[in-house]
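Lab manual, section 2.4: Encoding a predicted structure.

Procedure: take the sequence of the chain (228 residues), apply the prediction step described in section 2.3, and record the output as structure tokens. A sample record is shown.
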Amino acid sequence: MTELLNQLKILSKIYPLEGYTWGIDKNCPLLIPEGMSEFEQNVFLKENFAPLLDHDTNLDNHYWIINEWGKIRSFKRTPNNDSKILEFNKRLQSGKLTRTSFDLISSLSKIASFKDPMNFAIYDSRAVYALNWLLFRYSPELKLFPQPAGRNSEMSKFDQGTIFRLSGQPFEYESHKDAYHSYCDLLKQLSHEVYGDKRPFNIEMLLFQIGPEHIVNDIKNSVKLTIN
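Recorded output:
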């Protein structure tokens, strides 16, 4: 893992976390102090939002995280989705997820990252895409993580699964049961080594920043296809 850590330390200098941008809608249920950068606003949310979820019996704040903060409008408020949120909250503490929960991990992990930011991060498609490429290049002894569907057009042009298979290099993915918790554990370890701070959202924010441009460009510069 030494080479992976070295790369992340280099990237952390090139892409400082203060450059992380993710706007927060004005209807935020938590009052955010004025004068903060977008990075600082998001850290403030992660550090202070949990009490709003503890007694959120009607799930308003849970849906706000997914729909408004996360901008995933397709996750509609329905009795079925209510049940999926409640089931995910139970499974989160068990250390294992069901296939149903993992199929919605891009949405549901946003809740986990607000509920317990010391231990859980967002399983974002951009972050996972970046992490998998770095693992494949610099730490091939570690398992990769199942890639959720994403909305970024540049990343969608370069399907990593195809690239990995064509490389001939052996690789293995985490199972849906373990992937999310293993991902969070790895991010905590990497965050501690790179930033001296075990909160996994540090590395997640870095990965989110570098996915669409840096990682895509690295793939372009690293992968050559020759047809005989």
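Check your result against the sample. The first helix runs from residue 2 to 14.
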